[in-house]
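Lab meeting notes turned into a lecture example. A postdoc, R.K., suggested we walk through two folding results consecutively so the class can see how the record format repeats. The first protein's sequence and structure tokens come next.
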Amino acid sequence: MDTQNKNYVKRVTMMLIGILFIGICVGSFRLSEFGVDAFTCMNLGISGFIHMSFGTWQLIMNAVILAVIFFTVRRCIGLGTIVNMVGVGYLADFICWLFQEVLKIEMTLPLRIIALFIGMLFAGMGVALYMVADMGIAPYDAVGIIIEEMTHHKLKYDKARVISDVTVVIVGVAFCLMSGGKLGLIVGIGTICNALFNGPLIQFFKTHVTEKLL
């Protein structure tokens, strides 16, 4: 296998592992019950309000954002975009179903704390992996890039990501309150940590880990 093909295989592998990590991240946040990641917070709040499955609503939301990306940062669209749109929500649903319905694991406080840390770690590493693979990124992950370009790079990705994360958390909380849902299941210390630190973690893993893999 020549160098170009080896590089392509490595990029595809990084993209798939990154998306797998994001699915595990979302599922772990939900199992921790310390609140989910920012984007999931919004989607759980809205899907509960309109009585639609989380996976299906996340797919619809991603499609809407994708339409915006098509006219702004089209270079962010690729195979990884489609795999992420279709796979992450349903993978998270599967992980929760496996732990709660099949294995019937009782999430004690130590297990919830472990799940929270797994969610934080896999969130930053997962996004860093498929962003560096450069085969298309999740629609929501491109929002930070859109903000960065709209501000003519005055706001770098890590800060733009914090702004978008905080905004979607507010939207998720609003819809959850309107639907009378359990706010504690979607927003908590985990949500706050994700909204404030995910952008810097992504930048850290990109610089010190994933970029070196290529």
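The second example is placed directly after the first for contrast:
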Amino acid sequence: MNFGKLWSDVKDHVAFVLVVIVIIAVIIALAVVAQRILFKGRQETRQKTRNIAVTGMLSAIAVVLFLFEIPLPFAPSFYELDFSELPVLIGSFAIGPVAGVTIELCKVLLKLAIRGTTTAFVGDFANFIIGCSMVVPASIIYHRFRTKKAALGSLIIGTGVMTVFGSLFNAFYLLPAFSDLYGLPLDQIVAMGHDVNGSINSVATLVLFAVVPFNLLKGALLTILTMLLYKHISPIIKGH
């Protein structure tokens, strides 16, 4: 047994877990602080028990949507489109950013419990952190102004944040982490992208021609669906 290789793998996994814990803690803290500021002085008639029940219901819907992933013709197979952020966005608009982060986290944990992971947990962590990069800014902006125009603007800004952050995060952390933890050289990952798009020949072009359009497409579709559905669903969530 190669104990040096084993110890290196253990250190890589422990380091990844620590990074995950720290980032999740930062996101939760940001959502809590933002919600306290946004809701300060606002008369809240919604019951905590109802909010918890709604959060659980939306988490269940999100994990079901998370299990149905759609492959894309311009991206390698590990980038698949899903609509699990739709109930997350609806919950964050109706209840607040803390609910959005909670639903996002519960969705990922439930998916891991049901199906496990095929990406050494990197893909699941990526879904959470990049999903939150759209949901948290969008919900903060929406709750600041609470108008239909603000909702649309918040979703557009959220899509922009998700695209920029998701692209940089993939290039500088997620792809190298996936390569290390999954044991797949970066060259092979790039080659998988090259197989579907001949313009992809490096990590930078993989991000430019796969990750960027993937996030833009996902954000655009989520924006359309949220704008179409939220007005009809929010009275039910709020108990009106």
